[in-house]
Amino acid sequence: xxxxxxxxxxxxxxxxxxxxxxxxxxxxxxxxxxxxxxxxxxxxxxxxxxxxxxxxxxxxxxxxxxxxxxxxxxxxxxxxxxxxxxxxxxxxxxxxxxxxxxxxxxxxxxxxxxxxxxxxxxxxxxxxxxxxxxxxxxxxxxxxxxxxxxxxxxxxxxxxxxxxxxxxxxxxxxxxxxxxxxxxxxxxxxxxxxxxxxxxxxxxxxxxxxxxxxxxxxxxxxxxxxxxxxxxxxxxxxxxxxxxxxxxxxxxxxxxxxxxxxxxxxxxxxxxxxxxxxxxxxxxxxxxxxxxxxxxxxxxxxxxxxxxxxxx
Amino acid sequence: xxxxxxxxxxxxxxxxxxxxxxxxxxxxxxxxxxxxxxxxxxxxxxxxxxxxxxxxxxxxxxxxxxxxxxxxxxxxxxxxxxxxxxxxxxxxxxxxxxxxxxxxxxxxxxxxxxxxxxxxxx
Lengths: 312, 122
Known about the structure:
Chain A has helices at 214-221, 295-298, and strands spanning 39-41, 44-46, 60-70, 77-91, 94-107, 110-116, 120-131, 136-145, 161-171, 185-196, 203-212, 233-244, 253-263, 267-276, 286-293. Chain A is mainly β and 312 residues long. Chain A has a single domain, classed as Porin. A 12-stranded antiparallel barrel of chain A has the order 3-4-5-7-8-9-10-11-12-13-14-15. Chain A has a two-stranded antiparallel ribbon with strand order 1-2. The longest helix of chain B has 21 residues, at 2-22. Chain A binds chain B through residues 40, 42-43, 45, 180, 215, 218-223, 264-267, 294, 296-300, 304, and chain B through 16, 19-20, 23-26, 28-29, 31-32, 35-38, 52-53, 109-111, 113-117.
């Protein structure tokens, strides 16, 4: 999932006045539908991750992403988020994407609110730098949260925000033999800067995903006889933060998301708990489940190669 | 409403079952002989790797190297005639030591994957 601001709900009460809502921009990683392209660097398969984006620009379909999380408000706003994302490689190593989230929000004493959050367009250029031997990659990209494209009922921002981002990935397959059981580890991360077109704060959006690939263990390090479905699982923990930089944006908020990914030939199912890191991020643990469809594997004649040019 | 929900989920289930039987995907190592990371007491006659997809023979290879990085296999890599997901290469008698198996394959839907693993002859 791309690093996304998740606005807390602004609910109109029955008398037409806005209910109390937090001015703090909420936690990233709250189930916003962001596709994470999956890709290969050397021997390493980097799976799509949920709370943070990874550095690949490939054809992908995320449908659906479903999450539930309660905000830090008092009383808290419970948000069910059902989202999607579609990415398409246009030129070699360059992809465009679109994502959207349908939000359903409830708060004690208030009527519920639902509607689309702002849609997000994204662009990513993969492999600004890459080392197959060291399973390492750096990519760049940007997002445009289209202000006014979503519903005011759910607090969709009327103004746009641009977020240029750096992505990296590093697999640890190059560790020495003495540390061979650590080779299945991989780390991906993002660092982005929110540039709002309004008086909202600038935010540093940053995140990491630490994963341990059981498929990598079985096929590259040691066949320990793991049965299905465990041999196709990748346990991981993700860290996703938003740090306001000015305009009384408040403190850093974020979540820590432990979970697991299951890899099939044509899709990935992922599930994570969403654990707020501080009171400003929330008080309760939420959850997210995503289905990532590997459309380049299912329809290789249609997907898996750029619209213009060739990957070869 | 309940019947519609059951019908909806049944259709989704049929969709994914259909995907499993008709679609293609990247070829990943499923299992190998010698096993990945294993120690064997006798020099194996060949290295066999079973993949999760059928392979394009012309673009699939295995190379076995000794600890000094020298290729030691018989360079007769081939896809099994009866099992298109099985790639194999013959070996001479190998002295005791650790060997690296490096593979590069292309699945029948043109996706490339690669990997390597070690085995040890006692």
